[in-house]
Specification:
This protein is mainly alpha-helical. Helices cover 77% and strands 0% of the residues. GO terms for molecular function: transmembrane transporter activity.
């Protein structure tokens, strides 16, 4: 079997495994958001609180998980950059599943009093730590195993797990909400959390069969692993981390259209209020739309010559569609609400498909897990976690949905500006190399050349083997040296892109007679 076939097979396997794993993790994370809107205010807080306060407090516990996500990004980014992507993703999956399962077993306020919301918050923090390390690793396991120049496209496998997990969680609660309200509040909602244990087992079986990306193997073999990835990422790449975080608020509007909108639209104080089952059906069908259209975002970004123009036209409609969605929901008609929510879902779904790969390609391999995780989780902590609570406060304070609609448009504006700046720094097309990718390519080529020279010397039994290795290794510019960073062709040129291809996969295996097609890329 040729190396190109092996590369394609490995890429598909990594992509599918990434999708399934993130689907399970996001299912666990999203069921908490839905439960906080429908259940937790009644179960884990006193029923003597004023109307809406219990729901607001449950949203605060939801935010606790987001506040913990940067910590998870640092912890698991550290282990992912030092010891590998695969092992780290196994741990995040187990931690998330255990926390979700325990939420399903937790007694309510009526049984254990104030301990109930305290324990609930602690379990939510564990969920946040787990998902803080999940997203970056899943994007990398898919994009780093991808064929050359296809990192942005293959990163969409991991991104697809988010709408899939959200869809399953909403569908699960839609079915459970069909129970009579007393039964639903007593035990029905717990089924969604307890069921996660079975999904975790499936995810573990799949993740344990994953292969570590080739570029990570090279970094570990050359002992080029960062001693403290978080320190190096923050010291050398803090601008990229902030730009990455600034590019992501648009994807947090998911919590406006699901978590906040569910609580707001089912509030019986409204004359137009929806039943829980009806509005959950609206949300679920809108998520079906997201699941269908989202992959096209990665396909578009993979094929266009200038991703900046594509990003601009993808985001632009959201400035109108998201605010209009809230006004349509207020009409109280499920069909109109569904049409508006489905339309508003399209722009940020297309954007979400490719943004993971765009951010990942900005960082070098040795700190990539940490860098991408910090960028994503900083946004989640400051924007995502507070979105539902902020929207609830805005609506409660003003009595109008207009401030919430303006907030959604603001998210789109920040994402648009930061993404365009980030693309200017990392490369305009999916196929061209960023500076980080060019350095990684040179380092990979040097490693393969040195390894081949060493094997050739050993096989011939030459007395000057050591000198040959030194000469071979020294003849290839190291990452960051003057030839790689200065005199080499600019990132994105044919010569720069071809750097890795000049050292064939046949060289890596010691077969001199048959050159192999391009290897999997060092970076997406």
């Amino acid at each position: 079997m040729s190396d190109s076939v092996n590369t394609a097979k490995r890429a598909r396997k990594a992509g599918i495994a990434s999708f399934i794993g993130t689907t399970i993790e996001w299912y666990d994370f999203y069921i908490y958001g839905t439960a906080s809107a429908l259940v937790f205010g009644h179960v884990f807080f006193p029923d003597t609180l004023p109307a809406g306060v219990g729901t607001l407090l449950s949203f605060v516990t939801l935010w606790a998980g987001f506040l913990a996500r940067p910590l998870g990004g640092i912890i698991f980014g550290h282990f992912g950059d030092k010891y590998g992507r695969k092992k780290t993703l196994v741990v995040t999956l187990v931690l998330m599943g255990a926390a979700s399962f325990l939420v399903g077993l937790l007694p309510g306020y009526a049984t254990i009093g104030i301990a109930a919301p305290i324990i609930l918050t602690c379990l939510r923090i564990l969920q946040g730590i787990a998902v803080g390390g999940e997203w970056g690793g899943s994007v990398l396991i898919a994009s780093e195993n991808a064929p050359k120049g296809k990192g942005v496209l293959y990163s969409a496998f991991a991104q697809q797990g988010s709408p899939a997990g959200n869809l399953i969680s909403s569908g699960m609660f839609f079915l459970l909400a069909l129970l009579p309200t007393p039964q639903f509040l007593l035990y029905g909602w717990r089924i969604a959390f307890l069921a996660s244990i079975f999904l975790i087992v499936i995810g573990l079986v799949i993740r344990l069969k994953l292969e570590e990306p080739e570029n990570m193997k090279v970094v570990k073999k050359k002992d080029a692993v960062a001693k403290v990835p978080a320190f190096e990422a923050i010291r050398k790449h803090w601008v990229l981390i902030l730009l990455g975080a600034g590019a992501l608020p648009l994807i947090q509007v998911t919590y406006l259209k699901t978590t906040f909108a569910t609580a707001w639209a089912t509030d019986t104080s409204h004359s137009w209020a929806y039943s829980s089952s009806t509005f959950l059906a609206v949300v679920t069908l809108a998520l079906v739309v997201q699941f269908i259209v989202q992959p096209f975002g990665a396909i578009i970004l993979d094929r266009v010559k200038d991703m900046r123009k594509a990003i601009f036209w993808i985001i632009l409609p959201e400035f109108a569609l998201m605010p209009l969605m809230f006004f349509a929901i207020e009409l109280g008609h499920p069909g109109i609400a569904l049409a508006a929510m489905a339309a508003a879902t399209v722009p940020h779904s297309l954007f979400y498909a490719g943004i993971g790969g765009i951010i990942a390609r900005a960082f070098p391999t040795r700190v990539r897990y940490t860098g991408i995780s910090l960028a994503y989780q900083l946004c989640s902590m400051t924007v995502g976690g507070g979105t539902a609570a902020a929207a609830q406060w805005m609506y409660t304070s003003s009595g109008s949905i207009v401030p919430v609609a303006i907030l959604s448009a603001g998210y789109a504006l920040v994402s648009l500006v930061c993404t365009l700046i980030l693309l200017n720094k990392t490369g305009w097309t999916a196929s061209e190399n960023s500076k980080a990718e060019a350095a990684d390519e040179a380092e990979f080529a040097a490693a393969l050349a040195a390894e081949k020279a060493e094997r050739d010397a050993d096989s011939k039994g030459a007395p000057g083997a050591t000198g040959s290795v030194s000469a071979a290794a020294g003849s290839t510019p190291a990452a960051g040296s003057a030839p790689a960073a200065g005199s080499a062709p600019a990132a994105g040129s044919a010569d720069a892109v071809g750097t890795s291809d000049s050292v064939s996969a046949a060289d890596a295996t010691g077969a001199d007679s048959e050159p192999a097609p391009a290897r999997a890329p060092v970076t997406p």
